């Protein structure tokens, strides 16, 4: 039987003894990953400040924790509004990825189209930049 050994805001750790061996399991809050399209080959990326990391910023997609009391569309638009100051009028669930085992987390991937201005406060103070396939070459 699993025994919780740590519970934080975003992560919990459990141990389970099986046949004399102790197995650790990490549970991470489920997430939403959004690809906000501004054209057929361009998405908006976030330059996120990470004061506790070096360098103190990173380029990333729009992401956040999934709130199960909200619909997919509400989760997507909340994160878009917080991170890039926009919301989408067209949202497609692209994929659901479940990690089960030592690390446990579900991630919901969504494509967001028809973006309109709509800002929510964001304590992380992030900037948005466009990103396209040509940046990879």
Account of the 3D structure:
By secondary structure, this protein is mainly beta. It has a single domain (29-136), classed as Nucleoside Triphosphate Pyrophosphohydrolase (Alpha-Beta Complex), CATH 3.90.79. The chain is built from 1 helix and 10 strands. The chain has one helix spanning 72-84, and strands at residues 3-7, 11-18, 21-28, 31-39, 42-49, 57-60, 62-65, 86-99, 103-117, 127-132. Strands 1, 2, 3, 4, 5, 6, 7, 8, 9 and 10 form a 10-stranded mixed β-sheet that branches. β1 and β2 (11-18) form a beta hairpin. The longest helix is centred in the middle third of the chain and has 13 residues, at 72-84. It is elongated and about 55 Å long. The termini are far apart.
Secondary structure layout:
Elements: E1 3-7, E2 11-18, E3 21-28, E4 31-39, E5 42-49, E6 57-60, E7 62-65, H1 72-84, E8 86-99, E9 103-117, E10 127-132
Parallel strand pairs: 3-9, 4-9
Antiparallel strand pairs: 1-2, 2-3, 4-5, 4-7, 5-6, 5-10, 8-9
């Amino acid at each position: 039987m699993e025994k919780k050994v740590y519970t934080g805001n975003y992560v919990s750790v459990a141990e389970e003894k099986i046949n004399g061996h102790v197995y650790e399991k990490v549970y991470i809050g489920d997430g939403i990953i959004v690809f906000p399209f501004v054209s057929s080959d361009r998405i908006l990326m976030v330059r996120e400040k990470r004061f506790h990391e070096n360098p103190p910023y990173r380029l990333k997609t729009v992401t956040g924790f999934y709130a199960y009391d909200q619909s997919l569309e509400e989760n997507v638009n909340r994160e878009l509004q917080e991170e890039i100051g926009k919301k989408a009028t067209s949202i497609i669930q692209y994929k659901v990825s479940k990690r089960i085992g030592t690390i446990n987390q579900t991630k919901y991937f969504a494509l967001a189209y028809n973006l309109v201005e709509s800002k929510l406060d964001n304590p992380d103070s992030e900037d948005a930049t466009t990103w396209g396939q040509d940046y990879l070459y």
